[in-house]
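Issue: copy button drops trailing tokens. Both records pasted manually instead:
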Amino acid sequence: PRSIAKFFGNAEDLYQMGPTVGVGAQGQVYKCEKLSTCMCYAAKVVDTWSTRGTRSNFARESLEEEIQNMRRLEHPCIMKVVEDFWERGERIIVMDFAQHGD
């Protein structure tokens, strides 16, 4: 597996990547810290290079739709999307961090 950047995001919203807290079909989830606030979040990292061709387009469209749907949902049992980034071919989705999982 490829290693990901230790830091990601733009200058105002720089995050430091921490340990892996989960692995799923779409990628890995890491604990991360927003450096400007010292707040902890979960960063879901989806490798968009792993799919090619038509499937790749479908996978990216599905991922973007998932992000938009997650942004609209407001429920105490659903992790809120804080922000998202494209970083070196990976889609990074920053969400609230649940200490004991989702």
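Record 2 (pasted manually too):
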Amino acid sequence: MNLDIFRAYDIRGVFGVDFEPKDFYRIACAYTDCFQPKTVAVGHDVREHSPELWQQVASGFQDSGVDVLNLGRISTDMLYFAVVHYQMDGGIVITASHNPAASNGMKLVGQHAAPISADTGLFTVRDAVERGTSFARQNGHCQGSLWGISFLDAYLSHLSSFVDLRGLSEKQIVLNTNSGLAGQIADRLLVETPIQVCQRLFTEPDGNFSRIPGGRPDPLRPENRKLTTAAVQQTGADLAVAWDADADRCFFFDETGTFIEGCYITALLAEKLLRRQRGGVIFDPRAVWAVEHAVVSNKGRPILSRCGHSFIKAGMRESQALFGGEASGHYYFRDNFYADNGMIPFLLVLEYLSVNGMSLAEVVNELIASTRYEWLKVIRKLIIEYAR
């Protein structure tokens, strides 16, 4: 195993080059040695070799005496929900997010879906793998159990609690789900709403990502964005929404097909949530101008964080922030266990546009105008201070 697959936030490498399936067994044993869980939830994404890797992880846990909840094929944010909903001691999802099909890896969480990253134990797991610590632990322990459960309805109910689906107004939208599972979840959420999907891009799960340009299920890649933009322009849709393959990041395009930067979606969501309830909003430096103005204008508490989801999540928990957003398309919610989710922003943006009767371009143009005004105030202040 190439130990460089242990990265700051997750484990990721090329299947058959950086790791073999049996290495994932070793990682599950090392996780057990480091965190001593009694129960874990394990799921996997759509990649063709993910089920084989899932089996190795599940076996590693079971042989270490840990009971395993089989989540099956899931999005990453479904793992967070399941760990909290079923009060598990931790969990793993087999995924390489938006990387090509040859790649794979895993994201690890502990109790309450708290992320296991370099700062919170991931490198400790790496070191245990390197030492081969207690891999024979199974010899003195009872075999852990394995059971499965259908939890999609519970997950959909959780997502629906963030909005009034009955209050959504009629809209035509384009969905680009990059051959992951987001399309199936979105369809279930919209079934009783007046929202119509006028075009679908890559909505059938495909573990090879063979129909996506370059085989990269990443909505930020220029060739991928061009397809989404063209779909909006060809259909006259009101907006488009795109997710990466593991569906934990969410991106928006307005009615002209223009890609909307994550800082403006963060500002929009902050405004909407703060109108319901006061609280803190955490964001990274790439989003500072648009978001800070939206937060202060709505009597919220702006909190600046370092970039990276482990820092955002830690900051969310420490400050008990209401909401967090990154320019990278990750959005975090206190009422979602301080975890990120790719479906909640989708629903909240639809509700925002329905309630305000505005198009997405109109909303963003207002945010840009207010941000430009804030820039001018700062520049004027600097000029005055410099003149002194």
